[in-house]
Hints:
- By secondary structure, the protein is mainly alpha-helical.
- The chain has two domains: 48 residues, Up-down Bundle (Single alpha-helices involved in coiled-coils or other helix-helix interfaces), CATH 1.20.5.810; 119 residues, AhpD-like.
- The chain is 60% helix and 0% strand.
- Helix 4 crosses helix 7 and helix 5 packs antiparallel against helix 6.
- The chain is globular.
- The termini are far apart.
- Pfam families: CMD.
Amino acid sequence: MTQSTSVPASQQPGMNRISYLPVPDETQVPEGVRKLWGKAEANIGFVPNVFRAQAVNGEQFLAWWNYFNLLLNKEGYLTNAERELVAVVVSGVNRCLYCAISHGAALREFLGDPLKADAVAVNWRHADLTERERTLAAYAEKLTLHPAEVTAADLQPLREVGLDDHQIMELVQVIGMFNLTNRVSSALGFVPNAEYYRQGR
């Protein structure tokens, strides 16, 4: 007789799974994670699934969030729209469902142009981008797909469209952050919140 084992709801099909791993509840995470979940609920009306799924290792999640938040949500050297553009290009190239959907939503809001943002999410070459935006997208794609081929010469097009050293450094960090986050999200099957599909439309 085969012994049956229970499968966590987070792994069962058709049961609102958001990750391949079991997702902790509020009693299983550090206080800092609970506070962040509460802040998200108050500010945007829901807790992003990535906040719940990554909290399996609460302190590591908080360390990731602090860096991610600094790069994407604080005042930086690139504009919010430029950082989200890069996020969507990298996520699209990596075919990361969670990040392409969630940051596609943010890009729609920052651009105020759902058609342009949706085109970026599918194939940035078919989007109505400025020369500067196209240069950012091309660099993000190359660094994502062919990092070993990137040389100092690849910085020249960035400088030609006006990027300074601070902006180049931030651009590289944002590209790196999304390659990391894409891989975590894809490896563990993170599912985007339904709210993202409606946001910015």
